[in-house]
Amino acid sequence: EVQLVESGGGLVQPGGSLKLSCEASGLNFNGFALHWVRQVSGKGLEWVGRIRSTSHNYATTYTASLKGRFTISRDDSKNTAYLQMNGLKTDDTAVYYCSAYEDEWSGTTYYYQTAVWGTGTTVTVSS
Amino acid sequence: DIQMTQSPSSLSASVGDRVTITCRASQGVSTYLAWFQQKPGKAPKSLIYAVSNLQSGVPSKFSGSGSGTHFTLTINSLQPEDSATYYCHQYHTFPYTFGQGTKLEIK
């Protein structure tokens, strides 16, 4: 069964840090780009960023407002991607999802033909 | 950033009805357009990619069309399980962006 499982969410104080994990199984992790998307409770979806595969030098792209505070990385030997979040603000409170797409299709309209999503992990930033 | 605007924001329809949700992009996104379905407390589920291509396992009652800046999602023969929020999503230009969502209620 193909699946992604996020972990690492929890309660953190403003200004603190948290590192989320996204562990994959049932897919050729090395060939997939990993994206992070977040959702504030009761609100819409916000794309956070992505990391490409080793074939594309693990290139990362972020939404501008989060760049500098959030960093995406991956460890292919563990089939796991990470989202390091620093300088957390109350506005960062959300459910964080990871999703995977076949990297070879990146830049084409068929990029999303294979879409795998995790079930999400909740981050609460509060004092 | 490319703004994706969906209409309506919410709608109510009866079992057996057909509904259409519209998504407009502030700039052209060619055919780099996907639709997601999200039920309460669940992760988004990919329905359609590249405007009109159904994901594996998605019933043919769902269909998408459009190009450039104007897109539609049509759902035929509504059933209670279609009650959800639907999001359009462009993956043409970074940062990728989503519409604000359309909440569909089945009466």
Helices, strands, pairings?
The complex is a heterodimer of chains A (127) and B (107).
Chain A: E1 3-7, E2 10-12, E3 18-25, E4 32-39, E5 45-51, E6 60-62, E7 70-75, E8 80-85, E9 94-102, E10 116-117, E11 121-125
Parallel strand pairs in A: 2-11
Antiparallel strand pairs in A: 1-3, 3-8, 4-5, 4-9, 5-6, 7-8, 9-10, 9-11
Chain B: E1 4-7, E2 10-13, E3 19-25, E4 33-38, E5 45-49, E6 53-54, E7 62-67, E8 70-75, E9 84-90, E10 97-98, E11 102-106
Parallel strand pairs in B: 2-11
Antiparallel strand pairs in B: 1-3, 3-8, 4-5, 4-9, 5-6, 7-8, 9-10, 9-11
Q: What does this entry look like structurally?
A:
- The complex is a heterodimer of chains A (127) and B (107).
- Chain A is mainly β and 127 residues long.
- Chain A is 0% helix and 49% strand.
- In chain A, strands 2, 4, 5, 6, 9, 10 and 11 form a seven-stranded mixed β-sheet that branches. Chain A has a four-stranded antiparallel β-sheet with strand order 1-3-8-7, with no helix packed on it.
- The N and C termini of chain A lie far apart (39 Å).
- By secondary structure, chain B is an all-beta fold.
- In chain B, the strands form two sheets. In chain B, strands 2, 4, 5, 6, 9, 10 and 11 form a seven-stranded mixed β-sheet that branches.
- Chain B is globular and about 35 Å long.
- At the A-B interface, strand 5 of A face strand 4, strand 5 and strand 10 of B.
Can you summarize this structure?
The complex is a heterodimer of chains A (127) and B (107). With 127 residues, chain A is mainly beta.
